[in-house]
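Translate structure to sequence.
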């Protein structure tokens, strides 16, 4: 009886871990525009960032976007539909340890 309870707890923990991992790295655009101060650093956890909130992002402040790992561990995927960043002329943006893939724009590719 105790063994079954332990197995159920392990299954529940595994399911929660997988759900957390799937939702953790799906969006960061809100972090850039709302949570990161001018001159601040946004650190991205390893993972694949996809979805509508991860493309066509306008950056209107000085910011550093840094991957917490090697560039092959932090991937921003525009899914072939748009550029990833629109950086305004007023801003200095530093990008460290991030890979951009599947961007489709008429000029600038992933970043314009």
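Result:
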């Amino acid at each position: 009886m105790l063994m079954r309870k332990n197995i159920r707890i392990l299954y529940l923990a595994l399911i929660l871990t997988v759900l957390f991992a799937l939702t953790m790295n799906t969006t960061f655009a809100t972090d850039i525009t709302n949570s990161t101060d001018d001159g601040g650093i946004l650190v991205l956890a390893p993972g694949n960032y996809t979805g509508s909130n991860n493309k066509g992002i306008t950056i209107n402040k000085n910011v550093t976007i840094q991957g917490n790992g090697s560039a092959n561990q932090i991937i921003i995927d525009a899914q072939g539909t748009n550029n990833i960043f629109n950086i305004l002329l007023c801003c200095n943006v530093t990008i460290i340890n991030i890979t951009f893939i599947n961007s489709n724009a008429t000029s600038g590719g992933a970043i314009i």
